[in-house]
């Protein structure tokens, strides 16, 4: 036991001695949480708009004022001619243009019908559809106010409730993803590299000829990264709760138990990678490019899985983070109990056992 | 002097066939796979339709929602509790609850509330899906207006109306691939260029061959330039291959002039490779270089406006975003490829990229020490 602790301590020295590893280890989670929490949001606001107002009458100006008041738009200087609009799009200055024809107000008050044109920038189709919806709603609202305040005869009024997230805290969407990603980096990438480095430097030989049992070598290699992953997990949780005001609804014990299970899955993957590769660079490429990208793409964290071609959906079933992502959303954010996630837990446990078995079987106690 | 180091670098690049294959194969494969998977379009929103009214109107509403093409009805005879269980199990995204007396109240009083509850943890899906559902409801309102009016009060006077026509320029069908593919091309170029140069000088340090170069009379700038030019050429070839894939697979051909596009790519690559070399001069092992490069490239990509719009960021984040070269190059590639902007329309971006190129390479030259 004492010997094991000595080895674990040695592993910690390796990690803490190198400041650049620390940057990845603790800098990346903190930076990601801050960026995702405060800088990146999928909400569409500050849309640059320009107006081509041929009418310049009461109605057109009131609509413009309504848009100005909505805070979704930022007004760029009005253009004088239709051809200027294209120029503005091509310089990337605007996302949309609103055009009032010459007798807009007159048409509206006389015949009750008038036309207005919206041009949106299709280079960013998401923003384009959303801004068209915004403008539609604003103009419809103006129209409503014209009808002297009378409500339309038939109205179905949706009363909207945001389940699990009444305050519409955007952080909830990405925190599970960031946690899964960090575990992949720390547990899979760092572990695989740390084993391979010993091979490259030749110190593995020394470990293997020591009276220490090979299985102990593996345990000593993985325990530090398990602990580091957990520390990272705690840091992320603290930042989420205190900085991003995320409420943890479920049981913390269950959350930690499930996280440890997923970390073990990642560690087994890391050991497997380290067993089949011989240089740090290959191990790195394997775990960074080969594992990180599928994790990002196929867990349903950045992009909805349902829209992907069936082949990707099929592949996503063998990616461990997919199940962890479901578990953490259920436990942490929805506050559900074990009965909702036993299936995912079982799959993760099965994967861990399988990966660990393969990794142990491939673990060579002789080098060449 | 420069000629010798160039010849050495090229030999090294061509000697390692696996790295060479990776530099070209990885972007091509990812450019084909990524846009298929990276799709923000929201379809198949699962709606649990809880109908306590079971009337003609509620059935008509159900049919309207089901036929709109965006929704999948995952159960409609259930109670609200059952629907909530579906949400918990992730089988439904939105619950629409039609209360008892829905039809009666609508006809008598002209208004009726319905409850919409969405799983707000899947942010995009629920907010966009919720928006769609509201639009369907509004549309249903209007159709109701016409139907009921015709029955009860005969034709009424034409309502005042503003006709809103809209057109989406540069991408009339609002297809997502036009947005994603050029962005992914830039990302891949950035990753390949950034990682490979970051690893380069540091490998010479690790192997020890840097000592041999240090004792030669080569100037510092010649050394950096000698490292830069081969990878610049490789980068331009990767970029070209990417453009060809973009055309063959997605049918996207740059609207603007190819010369302008290549001019920007050329300047951007100089800036990017300078960044990689700078990391390389700072690191002592390939592992460190890889980590530092990963850290920064991750931030660059997140802040570049590739995933989320820069406009919606808070001011401080927009400043950071402006200070990363990737942001400017993605913006320019989208402008030139999709809108056909000319050089004079995007010249400020060229200035930005030029400044990055000079600063990053200058720093790399300054930070490269021939003596240890």
Question: How do the helices and strands line up, and which of them pair or pack?
Answer:
The complex is a heterodimer of chains A (368) and B (372).
Chain A lengths: L1 H16 L1 H21 L7 E7 L4 H12 L3 E3 L6 H9 L5 E5 L3 H7 L2 E9 L3 H22 L8 E9 L11 H27 L1 H7 L4 H29 L9 H25 L3 H19 L11 H7 L3 H14 L8 H21 L6
Parallel strand pairs in A: 1-2, 1-3
Antiparallel strand pairs in A: 3-4
Chain B lengths: L1 H14 L1 H21 L7 E7 L4 H12 L3 E3 L6 H9 L5 E5 L3 H8 L1 E9 L3 H30 L8 E9 L7 H31 L1 H6 L5 H31 L7 H25 L3 H18 L11 H8 L2 H15 L7 H21 L5
Helix pairs in contact in B: 1-9, 2-7, 2-9, 7-9, 7-10, 7-11, 7-13, 9-10, 9-14, 10-11, 10-13, 10-14, 13-14
Mean pLDDT over the full residue set of chain A: 83
- What is the β-strand count of chain A? 5
The helix/strand series of chain B, from N terminus to C terminus, equals: HHEHEHEHEHEHHHHHHHH
Q: What is the helical fraction of chain A, as a range of percent?
A: 55-70%
Strand tally of chain B, please? 5
Largest sheet of chain A at a glance?
4 strands, mixed
* Residues in helix, % of chain B: 55-70%
Low-confidence stretches of chain B: 151-159
Ends apart, CA distance between termini of chain B: 22 Å
Low-confidence spans of chain A: pLDDT under 50, at least 5 residues? Answer: none
Strands of the biggest beta sheet of chain B: in what spatial order? 2-1-3-4
Q: Please, what is the average pLDDT of chain B?
A: 84
């Amino acid at each position: 036991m004492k010997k094991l602790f000595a080895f674990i301590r040695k592993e910690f020295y390796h990690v803490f001695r190198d400041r650049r590893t620390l940057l990845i280890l603790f800098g990346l989670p903190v930076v990601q949480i801050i960026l995702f929490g405060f800088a990146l949001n999928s909400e569409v606001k500050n849309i640059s708009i320009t107006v081509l107002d041929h009418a310049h009458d009461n109605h057109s100006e009131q609509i413009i004022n309504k848009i100005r008041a909505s805070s979704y738009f930022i007004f760029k200087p009005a253009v004088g001619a239709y051809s200027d609009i294209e120029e503005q799009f091509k310089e990337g200055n605007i996302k949309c243009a609103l055009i009032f024809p010459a007798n807009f107000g007159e048409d509206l008050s006389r015949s009750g019908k008038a036309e207005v044109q919206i041009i949106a920038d299709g280079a960013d189709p998401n923003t384009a559809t959303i801004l068209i919806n915004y403008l539609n709603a604003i103009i419809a609202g103006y129209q409503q106010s014209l009808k002297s305040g009378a409500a339309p005869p038939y109205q179905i009024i949706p009363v909207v409730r945001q389940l699990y997230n009444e305050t519409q805290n955007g952080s909830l969407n990405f925190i599970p993803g960031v946690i899964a990603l960090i575990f992949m980096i720390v547990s899979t990438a760092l572990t695989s590299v740390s084993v391979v480095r010993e091979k490259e430097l030749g110190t593995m030989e020394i470990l293997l000829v020591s009276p220490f049992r090979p299985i102990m070598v593996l345990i000593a290699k993985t325990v530090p990264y398990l602990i580091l992953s957990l520390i990272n997990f705690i840091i992320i949780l603290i930042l989420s709760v205190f900085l991003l005001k995320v409420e943890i609804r479920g049981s913390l014990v269950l959350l930690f138990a499930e996280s440890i299970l997923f970390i073990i899955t990642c560690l087994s993957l890391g050991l497997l990678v380290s067993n089949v590769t011989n240089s740090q660079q290959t191990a790195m490429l394997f775990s960074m490019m080969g594992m990180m990208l599928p994790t990002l793409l196929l867990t349903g964290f950045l992009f909805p899985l349902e829209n992907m071609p069936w082949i990707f959906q099929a592949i996503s079933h063998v990616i461990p983070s997919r199940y962890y992502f479901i578990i953490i959303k259920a436990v942490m954010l929805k506050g559900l109990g074990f009965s909702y996630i036993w299936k995912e837990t079982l799959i993760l446990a099965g994967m861990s056992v399988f990966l660990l078995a393969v990794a142990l079987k491939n673990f060579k106690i002789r080098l060449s | 002097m420069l000629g010798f180091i160039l010849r050495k670098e090229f030999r090294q690049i061509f000697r390692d066939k696996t790295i060479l294959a990776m530099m070209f194969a990885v972007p091509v494969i990812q450019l084909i796979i990524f846009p298929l998977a990276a799709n923000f379009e929201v379809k198949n929103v699962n709606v649990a339709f809880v109908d306590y009214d079971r009337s003609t109107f509620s059935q008509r509403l159900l049919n309207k929602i089901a036929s709109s093409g965006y929704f999948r009805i995952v159960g409609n005879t259930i109670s609200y509790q059952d629907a909530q269980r579906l949400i918990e199990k992730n089988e439904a995204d939105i619950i629409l609850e039609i209360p008892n007396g829905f039809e009666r109240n609508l006809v008598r009083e002209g208004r009726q509330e319905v409850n919409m509850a969405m799983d707000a943890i899947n942010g995009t899906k629920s907010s966009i899906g919720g928006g769609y559902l509201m639009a369907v409801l509004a549309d249903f309102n209007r159709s109701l207006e016409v139907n009921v009016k015709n029955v009860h009060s005969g034709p009424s006077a034409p309502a005042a109306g503003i006709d809103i026509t809209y057109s989406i320029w540069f991408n009339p069908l609002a297809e997502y691939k036009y947005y994603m593919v050029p962005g992914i091309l830039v990302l891949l170029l950035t990753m390949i260029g950034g990682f490979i140069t970051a690893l380069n000088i540091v490998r010479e340090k690790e192997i020890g061959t840097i000592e041999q170069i240090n004792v030669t009379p080569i100037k510092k700038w010649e050394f950096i330039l000698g490292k830069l030019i081969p990878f610049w050429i490789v980068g331009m070839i990767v970029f070209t291959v990417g453009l060809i894939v973009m055309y063959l697979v997605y049918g996207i051909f740059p609207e603007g002039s190819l010369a302008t596009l290549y001019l920007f790519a050329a300047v951007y690559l100089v800036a990017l490779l300078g960044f990689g070399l700078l990391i390389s001069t700072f690191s002592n092992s390939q592992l460190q270089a890889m980590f530092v490069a990963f850290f920064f490239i991750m931030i660059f990509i997140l802040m570049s406006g590739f995933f989320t719009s820069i406009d919606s960021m808070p001011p401080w984040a927009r400043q950071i975003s402006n200070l990363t070269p990737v942001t400017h190059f993605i913006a320019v590639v989208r402008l030139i490829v999709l809108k056909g902007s000319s050089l004079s329309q995007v010249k400020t971006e060229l200035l930005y990229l030029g400044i990055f190129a000079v600063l990053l390479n200058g720093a790399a030259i300054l930070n490269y020490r021939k003596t240890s």
